[in-house]
Write a structure and sequence with these properties.
The chain is of the alpha/beta class and about 425 residues long. It has 16 helices and 10 strands.
């Protein structure tokens, strides 16, 4: 540790030390009042002694939401984007499901208001050439993970399958529970898949020089900034959080009223209703089970209820029957609640075939890069954001990922088969301790 680091640690007795190497979060020491709320937040949500071991920071950004003085911020990405534009690169971005129900809050709209057209218009106005939907990547993840689950159940191997969409959770497993790595899904996250397919497929189809592109994921998540630096996660050049985007728009004096409504660019339009549910706790599992049921039976079962997975208490279970076999799933939000389930796996006593874990309360709608809310309104805001995505799932014509025509086309043209050689090359990954 250098002299400056020692000085900072000595001055701040209660606050967490954020290294300049932290990929997701940065700290303005001049605003820090050493209240210790950042440390309390990490202990409460993750049960990690972050004060003693700052290298274990999951970059989830929940401390950003609870910091009373705004001393903590997402690591800046805007300068990289502006520089890429100056270099004449084609700017391509893709929007995560959870931000379309929070974006309007920064402009006086009610939490949960679905604002995708205004969001796309804003992104176009600040210079993005193409705006795509990360729900396409979510649908890809559903297809690949459903097939992976089918194969694991058939082989009775590495069960339960643990979801891999939350980078804070993945880092936690690799750092703290490396003996359980084999249970993580090998599927990349939706952003991981989206970036790969933009560079490898979208650019080719649109006749864009992929070497002269700069791709940006617009997310509710600070940990995604950490994820895209992993060697196996390529294709996304930068992550811009919702809060960074809003600050940028306001500096450019782009308001709600002067922002036109736009639609996603051609080739990949909005994904399925199931893909939009990735923004809420239980949404990954809901979508996964829909497609897993189809792969096993050849039918869509509309009347399976997944609503019990979308409650607030941080832990839910569900049992469904598929071809006379019971499939048990568990959904966890907040890593502090995961230890009993991991102990069951270690002791080979887990009753589950699937475990979904999201670090942030409510899922991505409560991510560390989201629009901040008054602490007293936290539960209300998260509830309304979740309701907005659930409503969208019910409104859209295509609710199942496997029915998405854009997904069907990319398998016909490029990926060929689920979990096949090409899919494994671009859409799957391996893990190592201390990623």
């Amino acid at each position: 540790m250098d002299v400056l680091s020692k000085k900072e640690e000595k001055i701040f007795q209660n606050a967490v030390f954020f290294s300049k190497d932290n990929l997701g979060i940065e700290k303005d020491d001049s605003k820090c009042i050493d209240c210790g709320e950042c440390q309390n937040t990490c202990n409460r949500l993750c049960q990690i002694k972050i004060k003693e071991h700052p290298e274990n920071c999951l970059a989830c950004g929940q401390c950003i939401l609870t910091c009373p003085t705004n001393a903590l911020k997402p690591k800046k990405a805007r300068d990289k984007i502006i520089e890429a534009e100056k270099e004449g690169k084609t700017l391509i971005c893709y929007t995560s499901p959870a931000i379309r129900v929070s974006f309007g809050e920064a402009f006086g709209q009610k939490p949960g208001t679905f604002t995708i057209e205004k969001l796309i218009g804003a992104l176009k106005k600040i210079g993005f050439d193409y705006v795509l939907d990360t729900t396409f990547g979510a649908d890809l993840t559903i297809l690949e993970e459903a097939m992976e689950l089918k194969e694991r159940i058939k082989e009775e191997k590495n069960l339960p399958l643990m979801t891999s969409c939350c980078p804070a959770w993945v880092k936690y497993v690799c750092d703290q529970e490396p003996e359980l790595i084999s249970h993580l899904s090998t599927c990349k996250s939706p952003i991981g898949m989206q970036g790969e397919m933009v560079k490898k497929y979208f650019c080719e189809q649109m006749k864009i020089d992929k070497e002269n592109t700069f791709t940006v994921a617009i997310t509710p998540c600070t940990a995604k900034k950490m994820e895209i630096k992993e060697p196996q996660i390529t294709g996304t050049d930068a992550v811009l959080t919702m809060t960074e985007l809003v600050d940028w728009l306001k500096e450019e004096q782009i308001s709600w009223d002067n922002c036109e409504e736009k639609t996603f660019d051609s080739l990949w339009k909005e994904g399925s209703g199931g893909g939009s549910l990735f923004g809420i706790t239980g949404g990954v599992t809901s979508s996964l089970l829909r497609t897993y049921y189809f792969l096993e039976t050849g039918q869509n079962k509309e009347n399976i209820s997944f609503d019990s997975l979308h409650d607030e208490d941080g832990f839910k279970t569900l049992e469904i029957e598929v071809n006379d076999r019971k499939i048990n799933v568990a959904v966890v939000q907040k890593l502090a609640k995961i230890k009993p389930l991991l102990d069951e796996i270690r002791n080979k006593k887990s009753p589950y075939q699937v475990i979904e874990v999201m670090n942030c309360e409510g899922g991505c709608v409560g991510g560390g890069g989201q629009i901040k809310y008054e602490p007293t309104k936290k539960q209300e805001v998260i509830k309304l954001r979740k309701q907005g995505l659930k409503a969208r799932d019910k409104e859209v014509a295509i609710r199942f990922a496997h029915q998405n025509p854009d997904i069907k086309k990319i398998y016909e043209d490029f990926l060929i088969v689920l979990n096949g050689e090409i899919a494994k090359k671009y859409l799957h990954r391996s893990y190592e301790k201390e990623n």
